Amino acid sequence: NPGKKKSFCILLSQLPFFLKNCPLLRDDQQPEYIYFCFFACDALLHDQVVPEGGPPARVIVHVDLDCFYAQVEMISNPELKGKPLGVQQKYLVVTCNYEARKLGVKKLMNVRDAKEKCPQLVLVNGEDLTRYREMSYKVTELLEEFSPVVERLGFDENFVDLTEMVEKRLQQLQSDELSALTVSGHVYNNQYINLHDILHIRLLVGSQIATEMREAMYNQLGLTGCAGVASNKLLAKLVSGVFKPNQQTVLLPESSQVLIQSLNHVKEMPGIGYKTAKRLEALGISSVHDLQTFSSKILEKELGISVAQRIQKLSFGEDNSPVTPSGPPQSFSEEDSFKKCSSEVEVKNKIEELLASLLNRVCQDGRKPHTIRLIIRRYSSENHCSRESRQCPIPSHIIQKLGTGNCDVITPMVDILMKLFRNMVNVKMPFHLTLLSVCLCNLKALNTSKKGTIDYYLTPSLSTTSRSGKRSFKMKDSHMED
DNA sequence: TGGGGTTAT
DNA sequence: ATAACCC
Fold first, then answer.
1. What is the pTM of this model?
2. How far is the CA of A175 from the C1' of B7 (A)?
């Protein structure tokens, strides 16, 4: 490949090192190595295997709870354990336990189809996410005790960067303990472990921490889940699903090409969604190998340089995106979907309900939202998923009342939402909505946003009586930093 | 397809 | 404000 001449030189110079450390090359094995080396070439050309220089290899764990909503329901009501259980939202079974899966129930299955497949199926309503959300944050907090760098993905998945923790454990290890180091859980591809390879050693320690995490989740919260340990988020996530309920798998670097080649379609790659998969299909790209070998220049022209470079790296199993600590949520929202909503009175009633729940949540959080948004979905045969929204700042006199009596703020906030609504929908014309959602975002800690600015000293309500009163109240039960 | 979330443009 | 992504 003329364009890659320089990279190829690097490959050749590093090949002896690579082969010497290759666990598959034992004396009693010889003929199949050419096949293995082709995988190695791909990886080296794309700078994945960098023994010297560059950032240190990371150890990442992806933790994925088994059928999370169903588990929470079985904890709430232990009589449900052992029975086929589905969690219902509107007319969908959004998830179900493994008893139900054995009997043919799938995620996001129509309730009618599910009942037909499995007449004994027990259904519980899961439209109120409160208990799921609370349990979800308990899991994240538990993982944060191991290492503070925890990134949430949805309610039931977390990434943790274990690199530092692994380094600390290795420093405290005695040399005789090192030779007795073992993996915890499965090794992907049943790969041979080389205890002379520092990357293997670090991932093994990662697998032991993953087991401790899963044990803590079970002992303290009663939850089971899977874990995947690898050198980046993409690979950790892909490998966590290999052995499925309540098991874990570690990926050693030499098997990363096998793992990504095991995907049947680019759509299965996290980061390549519905739209990008469609555009790739139009270019004739359907397999991971298609994407690996497709012209970078053409891909950049078709998808833009940012998306093109990112997904082509993903196709080689490369993902340098950091584990970004999620911290507290950036937004609170509540939504409701329905067959039809076509009058202003109905809209107002739905909005009041959504807002009441939101104000309770925001009150518990302690921070204050400075922006409010209304989202709608209009009825239409095509483009069912498209939504429209309008947002505006929340007036400061409302923000100040937020923590206390929600009754005072609900009326003015509904008024604001109705103005946003009439800005989107011409109420003099017939309309047909299928979803309403209210979102509170732009969250700030207490009302100190202007502290230290000119505005702070020029706003009487902030710099004098109101502020000190608010402070003393807030100090009692808030979790805010000082 | 539900009821949520995030970041990038 | 929308569009993409994730669960």
1. 0.84
2. 45
Residue A337 CA distance to nucleotide B2 C1' (Å): 8
User: Residue A456: what residue type?
Assistant: Y
DSSP H or E stretch at residue A234: helix A233-240
Active site residue A157: yes
- Give me the CA A34–C1' C7 separation in Å, rounded: 40
Strands (E), A165-299: 186-187, 225-230, 248-250
Question: pLDDT of A357-385, one tens digit each?
Answer: 999 999 999 999 999 999 999 998 777 67
Please identify which of the residues A73, A99, A157, A254 carries the catalytic annotation.
Answer: A157
DSSP string, A96-152: E-HHHHHTT--TTEEHHHHHHH-TT-EEEE----HHHHHHHHHHHHHHHHH-S-EEE
Q: What DSSP character marks residue A58? A: P
- List CB contacts of A85: < 8 A, sequence separation 6 or more: A70, A73, A74, A96, A97, A99, A100, A121, A122, A123, A124
Dist CA A399 CA A61 (whole Å):
39
- Full DSSP string of A338-373: EEEE-SHHHHHHHHHHHHHHHHHHHHHH--EEEEEE
Per-residue pLDDT reduced to its tens digit, A124-163: 999 999 999 999 999 999 999 999 999 999 999 999 999 9
